[in-house]
Design brief:
Layout lengths: L1 H4 L4 H23 L5 H4 L3 H14 L5 H28 L4 H22 L14 H16 L3 H22 L11 H15 L14 H32 L1
Protein name: Glycine transporter domain-containing protein
Organism: Ancrocorticia populi
Family: Belongs to the UPF0126 family.
Length: about 240
């Protein structure tokens, strides 16, 4: 869909398909150093990615129900890739945190490479519904069940949990909060200002004057004094006139 939005040719479709589908697993296998990437040794991975690119190029897959199907399929693929990365890292003797990291990279790494390739900020960095977070949560049952000796159930549980969370996030628009100028310093200053304003009694608090209050008051006083001055000068002029007479 991204390739169609960017109006790419067939080469662009195939390149983005390989990046999206296999990029995360290739990064994982390169980091784990457990042999060549499985995407290069398995005879079905690359042909499957190319077949998907051809289908997306020649068929315009759109519509309400098709979009829903893509959302559901992508959600459960997210959980399955997470489980694959977690189980492979744990089987290689790595700890829990590296296993969770490998699971997340397997699930979202390909999408990150795709977004960077087309000049976009990766969608998992903000402004999108929960995706990488769903992968992190899905890795928890995978780790627990693998340590209990049930690697098959670990894969199934992570697939279901990750898919359910990703679908619910799209349905209810769950998002993580973004940092809009927040810092501990600004929070401390705001709390300090509120505490200081509440520490004084109400009758001692200085309320800000409405806009233009001082200017209007100044004009009224100047007008009053000017009227008084004009009256006084008129009176003195009258007195002077009577004296001259």
């Amino acid at each position: 869909m991204v390739a169609r939005e960017m109006r790419l040719d067939i080469v662009g479709f195939m390149a983005l398909a390989v990046m999206s589908a296999l990029g995360g697993g290739m990064i994982r296998d390169t980091l784990l150093q457990m042999g060549p990437p499985i995407a290069l040794t398995n005879p079905f991975y690359l042909p499957g990615a190319f077949a998907g690119a051809l289908i997306a190029f020649f068929l315009r897959l759109s519509g309400r129900w098709w979009n829903r199907l893509l959302i559901v399929a992508d959600a459960f693929v997210l959980g399955a890739w997470t489980a694959t990365g977690v189980v492979k890292a744990l089987s290689g003797g790595f700890g829990i945190l590296p296993a969770v990291l490998m699971g997340v990279i397997t699930a979202v790494g390909g999408g990150m490479i795709r977004d960077v390739a087309v000049g976009r900020i990766p969608s998992i960095f903000g402004g999108n519904t929960l995706y990488a977070t769903a992968s992190i949560i899905a890795s928890v049952p995978a780790v627990v069940l693998w340590h209990l000796g049930y690697p098959t159930f670990a894969t199934a549980a992570a697939t279901v949990v990750g898919g359910a969370i990703a679908i619910a996030a799209r349905r209810y628009r769950w998002r993580l909060p973004v940092n809009d100028g927040y810092s501990l310093g600004t929070s401390f200053h705001r709390l300090h200002d509120r505490t200081r304003s509440r520490s004084y009694p109400k009758f001692l608090r200085v309320r800000p004057s409405p806009p233009g209050a001082g200017r209007g008051m100044g004009r009224s006083h100047r007008g009053l004094w000017s009227r008084r001055g004009s009256a006084g000068s008129a009176g003195s002029a009258g007195t002077a006139g009577s004296t001259e007479d």
